[in-house]
Amino acid sequence: MRPVDPGSTRVLPRGLLVAAVLLLGARVASGLYEKQHPSEPWSLVAWVPLEQAQAISRERNVPILYYFSADWCSPCQVLEHDVFNDDYAARGINTRYIPVKLKDRRQEEGENPPAVQALINKLGVHAFPSFAIVMPDGKTQSLTRGYNGYTGTLQFLRIPTPSGRRPAPLSRPGSR
């Protein structure tokens, strides 16, 4: 067997193979991490933690908008894309309400945090997505279940529908 010439390109494939194995390992590790720690979809709505909402509502004299969803809920995902990622709708929500996003975790974890479950019981939330508008004094003003489209959601939220404006269509899984 002849020794490899130091200027030879035969060494390059070993380096590429090592790099490919390292990159594959890093991708598998990041995929496992993402599965255990899913990220929240990006939103233009300025969500407020549940624990702070009531105090902020009373201080500003603005109603709380509770949004109930679940990870497995397809209509919730469409609503979030159509409404919460639309600058006009998000601006209206942020101006008129103290928005609070609550996720049902019964299917994934077997139960909800006590504060979330107490609200679900109190407001009678039985379907997802659901919205509840609660006044600063704690009285429920209105509740809606299901996704009624962009226009129907804005009507429920008492946000005037902009003329000629429609949200971008939801992209199919795998396309970007």
Could you characterize the architecture of this molecule?
It is a single chain. By secondary structure, the chain is an alpha+beta fold. The chain has a domain of 107 residues: Glutaredoxin, CATH 3.40.30.10. It is 45% helix and 14% strand. Strands 2-1-3-4 form a 4-stranded mixed β-sheet, with helices on both faces. A hairpin with a 5-residue loop joins strand 3 and strand 4. The chain is elongated. The chain starts with 11 loop residues before the first helix and ends in a 20-residue tail after the last helix.
Query: Which value, in Å, is the CA radius of gyration?
Result: 24 Å
N-C termini distance? 51 Å
How many distinct beta strands? Answer: 4
Q: What's the total helix number?
A: 7
CATH third-tier fold name of the domain at 50-156: Glutaredoxin
Strand order of the largest sheet: 2-1-3-4
Overall spatial form: elongated
Task: Indicate the mean pLDDT.
Answer: 83
CATH superfamily of the domain at 50-156: Glutaredoxin
Hey, roughly how much beta strand do the residues contain?
5-15%
Structural class from helices and strands?
A: alpha+beta
User: What's the CATH C level of the domain at 50-156?
Assistant: Alpha Beta
The major pleated sheet works out as: 4 strands, mixed
Low-confidence stretches: 168-176
Task: Tell me the helix content.
Answer: 40-55%
CATH architecture of the domain at 50-156: 3-Layer(aba) Sandwich
Element-by-element helix/strand order: HHEHHEHHEEH
